[in-house]
Amino acid sequence: MILTLIALPSIALLLFLSQELLNSYYSRIITLIGIYGIMAVSLTLVNGISGVFSLGHAGFIAVGAYTSALLTLSPEQKEMTFLIEKLVWPLNSIQIPFFWATIIAGLVAAVFAFLIGWPSLRLTGDYFAIATLGFSEIIRIFALNLNSITNGALGLKALPDHTNVWWAWGWLLVTVATVLSLAYSSFGRALRAIREDRVAAQAMGINVFKHQLTAFVLGGFFAGISGSLYGHWLSTIDPRTNTFGILLTFNVLIMIVLGGLGSITGAIIGGALFAFLSEWLRFLEGPMNILGFKIMGISGMRMLVFSGLFVIIMIFWPRGLMGRSEFSWDGLVSVFKRRYKR
Amino acid sequence: MRKLFVILLVVFLSVSALASIKVGAILPMTGGVAAFGQMIWQGVELANELFPEVLGEKIEIVLLDNNSDKVQAVNTARRAIEQEGVVAIIGQVISSNTIAGGTVAEENGVAMVSPSSTNPLVTQDKKYVSRVCFSDPFQGVAAAMLAFNNMGAENVAVFVDVEQDYAVGFANYFKETANELGGSVFYEYYKSGDQDFTAQVSDAISKGAGAFFIPGYYQEIALIAIQARQLGFYEPIIAGDGAAVPETIEIGGDAVNGLYFTTHYDAGSPAITENAKLFVEAYTAKYGEAPGTFTALGFDTYLVVRDAIERAGSTDREAIAKAVRQTKDFPAVTGIITIDENGDAIKSVAIVKIENGKFVYDTTINP
Amino acid sequence: MGLKAPPSPFSFQSAGGVSLDPKTLLQNFINGLSLGSLYALIAIGYTMVYGILRLINFAHGDIFMMAVYFALFFVTLAQLPWYLAAILAVACAALLGFTVDRIAYKPIRNAPRISALITAIGVSFFLESLAVVVFSGIPRSFRTIFPQSLNEMIIIGGEMEVKYGREVIVGGIRFPVISLITLIVAAIALVFLWWFIFKTKVGMAMRAVSLDIQTTSLMGVNVDRVIGMTFALGSALAGIGGILWAIRYPQVWPYMGFIPGMKAFVAAVFGGIGSVPGAVLGGLILGITEVMMVGIMPGAAGYRDAFAFFILIIVLSIKPSGLLGRPEIVKV
Q1: Which of residues 116-155 of A touch B (CB under 8 A)?
Q2: Where is the Leucine-binding protein domain positioned along the sequence (chain B) (predicted)?
């Protein structure tokens, strides 16, 4: 416990240093890692701990992004951006601070999660996954067409650059604390019981539906928060497939699988790895100077390596990095003990 | 092992020690509009070969692929400015990407010159983003004049791609001018990536359309043309500069013969400047065929940026950005380019027709 | 910096309105049938794999895409005549499907279902990225690959007129030849599969595997081979569907399989996942309703893809086993 209390300020110090010493390109990536962490942890709560396979995460992230954007943009900016149809009242005259906008974004996303989860959780396994996928796409397509609310395909531009390392990692802390305490409570144990054997859990008297719905809604809440942060990191959002479509859900899925399905620490590690690899692999696409020869990179190589790595990991290492276990101080110590015993 | 490392280190250091002025080129080399990006890159590359130096130093083009994606547009812009330290950027190609990447350029005070983005929002209220092509308010007027005056159509069906800023804007300017000219238009909608337009075409036919206008990109233009002819629509089809790539003919085949479109330049038009002649010769020598619109625009953008660096007399980003906005009467391939204080260029619109599977120059509409 | 709104250059007329002209309705029904027949072919492959493995093979749409590229290159690079190229391309697609199963799905046969699903997604991504790197992301034309006679239209009704110096038929109901061919191929596939699954030993093995993998392997059946065959067969159908699709919509690009794949999947679920006739029925109905929706309400064209998902969710909520499927019994 004491170690955790020491670790937290040290992380804060590291973040502070990163802001000072690194150029904006790198420090933005560190912020992105925080955002990805929230996305991954919220999805892990649903997919990993509760065993409910949701493919609809992108929808909630999108809802969060749009809600917070519509609340933080100034009325004048909205006037300029909404060129096809005017933004509806009262959205066109509101502007509230980032913190509240993020919270409201999370709440709205949670409401959506409730509305979607209620009918969908009656379905099992694969059917549920497809239903959530469907809902996520429906959200996106509605966003694409509802010009008077979301500005349709034109999207929202010039989102104020609120997201910085502190907001992202701060919310990450909140998310992790909440999910952790939930996972280790009786509620969490019930969730895991449902994940292992649904029928047995039901036989033991656990209300499966209520538990799963609660987890789903909570996951949606934090997804919405991450959406708000993500939108303000991107500074421009639009309802296209690449931004808020299935691709985003898959990316988050990759993160939690990489780190270990069911592990919260794994989710964060997965998020960090993903952010890092995405940018680092870029070198494959530009001209490379090897031994004085200029080798033209191949466009698209990045995604190829990524997906190839992903499939290989799934085949040979499906537990991911952390499996189902969490980071613990004892665990860390035992890793070192094993090393030095040789 | 260590020797190899040392050799590599020395080579690496020596290579990176070569002084050069870095100019970024952020283009969609993959993704939905990669055809445009690749053609523009050809132009930029060719120009770099012909005019490789400025202020006594080599110009190094740093090519970054934005994958036709808005988010990547922002990321690559940041990378170019912060990681690569470019002094100016050529890019991006389609309006939505240039608008997205433009915010980054504005933040950091780096000049971004677009070869082909035509939406007015690209340069509106911006100090650092400019373009060497005309913008859609004018292109819309030209297209409308083509449809209603030159071709005498009435009641035009406009196919709008709801996913693209470019299409939505272009269609609107077309409509405005149409109303002024006394014609009528109605909209049919689709999304980028759609392949089946039979419902929309059937609907347009049943509403008695006298012509189709497709202010979108070539994939959809070609498919709509094919399906229109298949469903019995024989009236004229008009498009915008999104059609100005050979893929339109490759995909569309016979269905696009007789299609007219508005564009920036055609190799068949009389060469106005020395650079124009040089460009056509060099391109034909290198590739064995006539150059296309977007290649010419890429070529021009490089020249304009280089010229701005020369006039600025330094590699200071601020100075270069100012110099870009002061470009006056620059003899480029696609016309004589003057960039006004808003970052827009006043250019003429060329009308090109597709005949027997080839682009044939028709006429020019001047501002 | 005074942020003043510029005079709005946009005045979008929200396109509402419903158009119910009977002739257009009929034409759109035919249009939908044409699209639906393609969905049907692809859906069969999805349903077969799911029936056996309970796996949603997200990579199915990408095998469809690969088959088209194979055909493209067999004609352009290997200079093969189109019918030979088509047959080879379908064979390659079958091989590809088989290989994907061997390499990616077999090792995780016993892992939790989520892993299999995620792997399928990964394979799908991989195939798409591979296509981008190898074939480049620019759309290519398929127009010159197959004889143009396949893209002729069958015209019923209408009158001859002279337009722009050519004699043409105006009006009438039009149906592309290739769509007729697709319907025929789908029907043949249905009959063939019915015979194969119910009248051959391998088919019986497939049915057994779909009921209980472990018991079937205990009975001495080489389960892996049966599963591999299923993949090969389903992928071959995807390949055929792909080539027919490319003839109708002659534009080839690495992501071309994504949306048709998803819609075919919706169709398979709608018709009853695990049931081959269900897949065909689902595909046809989906195609027809999708096109007719746009035809009747042109302003809603942007919602077209959402419509497919709507159907999916409603079907899943009311009758998860689809139109022709059997309800799944969960054994405790």
Answers
A1: 144-145, 152-155
A2: 20-357
